[in-house]
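Issue 218. Parser rejects a valid record. Input:
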Amino acid sequence: MKFVYMLIKNTKKGLFGLVLFGILLSLSAEGIAEVQSNLTSNLSNRRPQLQEALPLHKVVLFSSGVGYFEHRGFVDGDTALDVTFGTEEMADILKSVVLQDYDGGAIDSVQYQPPEPLERRLRDFSFDLDSNTSFYDLLRQARGEQIEVEIENSQSLNSRTLNGRIVGLESQAVGDTEPPQRQMTLYSEGSMTRVALDEVVNLRFSDPLLQMELQEILSVLAKARRSEQRSLTLHFSGEGRREVMVGYIREMPVWKTTYRLVQQEQRQQELKQDEKAPTLLQGWAVAENTTNMDWDEVELQLVAGRPISFKMDIYSSLYVTRPELPPQVHTSARPPLYEEGYSGGPSLAEEPAARRLSAPQQMGTMDYRMEKSASAELRSSREENFSSGVAAAASGAEQGGLFAYTIDRPVSLAGHSSALLPIVQQPVEAEKLSVYGEQNTPLLKSLYLKNTTGLHLMGGPVTLFESGMYAGDARFEDILPENRRLISYAEDLSVQVVREQDALPEQVVNLSIKNGVFSYVNKQRRATEYRLIQHGTETSKILVQHPKRTGWELVQPAEAEEETASYYRFIRELKEDEESQLLKVVEEFPQERTVQIHNLGSGQISFYLKNVNMSGELRRALSRIQTLQQEITQLQRQKDDIQSKIDSIYRTQGRIRSNMEQLDRDSDLYRQYASRLSRQETELDELKARHDRLSEQVISTEGELSRFLSELSIES
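Output the parser choked on:
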C-alpha cells in the first residue's frame, strides 16, 4: 500500500486522483501488484521530458514579439528527450532550435511527426466527408452497399426493418412552399422498395469494414478540429555524464517598459544656489510568461532593440503538383551483375557519431529529477559559442544595435502570469521648460531629459512626481545613452504665446551673366512673430517649435538652438519681471531662374537696375546691354518707317500706272502722271539707299552686342 500512497501523492490534484484511488481500493492484492508492476514498467520506459531533464535556465525577451528559451543540464550516455509544443509553435521551433552537447558528446537527429493535410488524409477513404455532408449526400456515396434500415411511419407510429442494397436516391418537388421529398430505392430478393428518408429512424451498414472506415473518418475530422500538441525527440549521443543545452525561439508578448520620474524639489533648499536637485528615473519592465512552464529561478534578459523576426511555416508538409504521364512499357531487360567494389573512405559504421543522423538504438538511463543546486556546475551562457558537438554551420558577430537588460537575481514566474521587474534606478539630467507647438494649442509643462544612465531606455509611458505629488503623465520613444528627449506632462498656465504671420516683399539676389544667359535667385520671404507673455511670478524658459517647410531656409535668427526633422526649436528665457518678449522668425524660399539675355527686354533691365542691389561691373554691363538694345530698336524703327514709305510709293505707282493705261499718251493728265512717276522713282532710290545704310547699322550693332555678350562673364 506504500506504493499506492506514493502514487496518489504524486498524482495531479482533482477528480482523476480520486477516481484512481477508488479503483485501486477495489482491487485485490494481486491486482494491486499487477497495476504496480505495469505502472512501474511504463514509468521506466517513458522518455524523460525536456523540462524535467534540463531545467529552464535562461529566458531572453525581445521587443519584436519573440523570446529565446535555453535549457541546461546533464545527461548520461546516449539519451533521448521529448519536448511538446503547440502545433502553431512548431514552425518557430524548427526554424530556431539549437542543440549543444559538451564534453565530447554529439548531436543526433531531431525527430518529429509532420502534419499531413486533411484533404490528403481523407483522399483514401470511400466517403467524402470533408464538407458539411448531409444524410442524403452520404447515402448517395454508398450506392450498392448492403444496409439495414428501420422505418417508422409518422401517422401509424408502426416501425419495420428492411434489408437491401442501395440502388439510388432521388428528390421530388412537392409544392412551392414545401421542401422537396427525398426517397431512397432499396433492392432486396428481386424487388425494389422506395423509402422516404424522413421516415428513416435508424440505418446500419452491413459491412463491418465500412462501419470501421466511417468511424475512422469521423475521428480524423474531430482531431483536425482540435488544437493538437506535437512532440520533438532530441537525441544526444556520447559516453559518461555530460552537460547539454537546448535553445529555441518561440512567440512571446512584447515586453514593455514603464517609468517614474521624481523631481526631488524638496532637496533644493539643502543645495547651493547654483546647484540643481537631481531627478530620479525609476524604470520597470513588464514581463509576461504566457507559456505553460513555470520559470523557476531563471536568468532573465530583456533586449531593447528591434531585431527582424518573421514566421515561415516549415512544419507543414508541402507538395508540388506534378504532371501525370502514362507509363511507357518496354521489354524487360535482364538485371546486370556488378563486381564487388571498395572505397578508401570509412564505412557508415565507422563514421564519427557526430555525422550520423539516425537515432541511437539504445538510450542510456538518467535521473531527470535534478536538484536546482546542480545548475551551479553549468557553464555560463555568456561563454556560449554554439560550437560544441556540432560541425560549424554559421559564425556569430556582435549585434551592436541591441541592448540587453539582465536581471541581477534569478527570476521565478509561474506560467500564464506577469511581473513588474525593476531595471533602472538612477538620477538623470532634466531641464524644466514650457513647450509651444502649434497655433491654438496650449503651452505644455515639459522636461528636457538627457539619458545619463548609460542604458538604452526603451520607449514607454512616464509618470511624473513633483514635491511628492503626482504631476502628470508623459511618454517617450527609445533613448540611446547620452541622447536627449523632450517630454510633456501638463498644461502651463503661467505663460502665453501669441503667433502672427506676414509675407514680406520678394528679393532678387545672386544675379549673373554667363554665355549669354542671365540668371538670378528670386526669394520669397515670410515672417512669423511669436509674442511670449508672462503671467506668472517666476522666470520661465519657453521652447517654441517652429514648423519647417520644404524648400524654405531660416534667415532670422541665424540658427535655431535645435532642429528636428519637422521643426526648428528656439529657446527663450522670460524673466519674472519681464512682461513680454518678441521672437521673430524670417524664412526665405529661393527660386533660381534663367533667361537668355537677348530675350531680356530693356524694361526688365531697367527694373533690375532700379530695384536690385548688384555690383558696379554688372550694373555697367546691363547698362551697356540696354544701350545697345535701345540703339538696335531705334535703328529698326527707322528701317520700318522707311520701308513703310517705300511700300506707300509702290502702291501709289501701281494706282497711277493703272490710270495711265486708260489715257491717251498725248493728254495733259498722262504727262502729269509720267512726271509724278519720275519724281517718285528718284525718291525711291534715296529711300532704298537710306534703308540699306540702316540695315548695315542694325547688323553692325547686333554684332557688337553679340560679341559683348559672348565675352561677358560676371557674377554679382
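Fixed in the parser; the record now loads. The radius of gyration is 50 Å.
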